[in-house]
Amino acid sequence: MNSLPPRVHIHEEGPREGFQIERGPIPTAQKIRLVDALAETGLADIQVTSFVHPGKVPGMADAEAVVAGITPRPGVRFTALWLNQRGLERAIATGRLHLEGKLTLYGSDAFLKRNQNRDPEAQRAAQPELIAMYQAHDIPVRTGFVTAAFGCNFEGDVPAERVVRLVDEMRAIARDHGEELSLVGLGDTMAWATPERIRRVVGAVQDANPDVALSLHLHDTRGLGLANAYAGLQMGVAHFDAAVAGLGGCPFAAHAGAAGNICTEDFAFMCAEMGIETGIDLEKLIACAVLAEEIVGHPLPGKVKTGGSLAALRARLG
Amino acid sequence: MNSLPPRVHIHEEGPREGFQIERGPIPTAQKIRLVDALAETGLADIQVTSFVHPGKVPGMADAEAVVAGITPRPGVRFTALWLNQRGLERAIATGRLHLEGKLTLYGSDAFLKRNQNRDPEAQRAAQPELIAMYQAHDIPVRTGFVTAAFGCNFEGDVPAERVVRLVDEMRAIARDHGEELSLVGLGDTMAWATPERIRRVVGAVQDANPDVALSLHLHDTRGLGLANAYAGLQMGVAHFDAAVAGLGGCPFAAHAGAAGNICTEDFAFMCAEMGIETGIDLEKLIACAVLAEEIVGHPLPGKVKTGGSLAALRARLG
């Protein structure tokens, strides 16, 4: 307990998760500008776009153009999201993305039904097909993800034991098909987590899987995002998804107040001030947050971009 | 460690701290409406106004009218702020307020100079005068407060040992003048705290003062408010200041991004979901947050008022 990790790895999801939910069309050049700026902050993993049906998510119709426009940079992996074979093939075709396979099970049957129109059996059955798809393209499958791992607006609380069972199932499916998961992500898709729940669920999954790293994907819909992240850090979790300036939100959560992920610069600030290495230049990241706000044209929820970093204040005080 | 308190006591400061900072004049009737609504939520302590110079803080010129207009309610203590004898006399004259004396020292000499134009010696010397003033009116002095207990925009980091010394000094001053402090508040006036710093400073003050309860006053300027509050809860802290909807901010912090206190309903939500008793009807409190936003006429930072409580969702799910 209270064993903060010496270093955290942040997967920046702002450009994908953020621009997907914005009402107005965001010019492709602006998306590229933000991604290029993010790539100069020290962030090692940046999810730049989503290869989804342009008819369904018009804001992502320029996925190829975004990827073609960004500037490669040593040490930076550009990642993307896809939901099916067609999407993956589009991502592969760019030739410029870091590609990894991921398995996904759901903590909530009701949300799975609503989101994918599938029952849990069908979702499990789909995973070997995913593995086969990745193997056909020589793409490693190292990550498993549990959506709605803490609770669901359509089903209620998700018990820790269910999450442990789902992780078990995912690892077994992977192993049965020649893959070994080394990272398991827990998604608080609809913001049901509290710090104590994070400790409980993370602890249960860690106890059953001491050989696997955990990652947290925390939405800030009810304001507990950073408190939950801190609870995760206390449990030694070292992988976090985050979105610059707090861009984004989940359109499928069918929830008026659904907010984005935890804000990257606020989280990075908290980590840095607690002595946890992030590899990030916070002042550059704050500049990206200001840029993101300029690009979307409305206030974004991150606080440090307004409040300022303490390192900057200390430097001024000498 | 990780000994959450079974119950927390929240001192609601929204009406005072919030309306003080708003640009436009807030009609007195609206202030009264919000206070009366807050008094029905189960909140036991509500700071309703500030008896300060009407020329300096025009938004508080209606302090007497606000106090005269609110409806007394059993179990609810209406409190107020004052900065000098004149203010205290105005508060006493209302005959409707719960009055308590408070001593204050500063974690930062630079901020004390800026805020009060005093050096630390003069600030210490002023405390016995305060005690005499309270004693002359039969008002108990039980609380000590350390302003800027975690850091200062004008001076930098504040070491835990300094805070321990200031608490020592305040307790000694009180004792030397026939009073005994039973509650010590630590103010993160300019948002320098992180969860780890909260644990360190709170732990140091607790170790030196096992017979005194602690209270936290946390500004959310850098987004860590609730994470810091959680760290305080883990240390057993059971007294918190908060502002409904996240109203407010400190005009004297001379900081563009200065945000208000932690948001009452977000904090109460976090506590309730972790099994900590607050005495608050969360749905009624959320309605107050919506009302506060209506009254000020612009978005306020609280999240649960948009995201909704989980208790409401659970009730709907049956």
TrEMBL record, chains A, B:
Transmembrane segments: none annotated. CDD domains: DRE_TIM_HMGL (cd07938). SUPFAM superfamilies: Aldolase. InterPro entries: Aldolase_TIM, HMGL, PYR_CT. The keyword Ligase does not apply. The keyword Metal-binding applies. Residues 8-286 form the Pyruvate carboxyltransferase domain. Keywords: Lyase, Metal-binding. One of its GO terms (molecular function) is lyase activity. PANTHER family: HYDROXYMETHYLGLUTARYL-COA LYASE. NCBIfam families: PRK05692.1. Belongs to the HMG-CoA lyase family. This is Hydroxymethylglutaryl-CoA lyase.
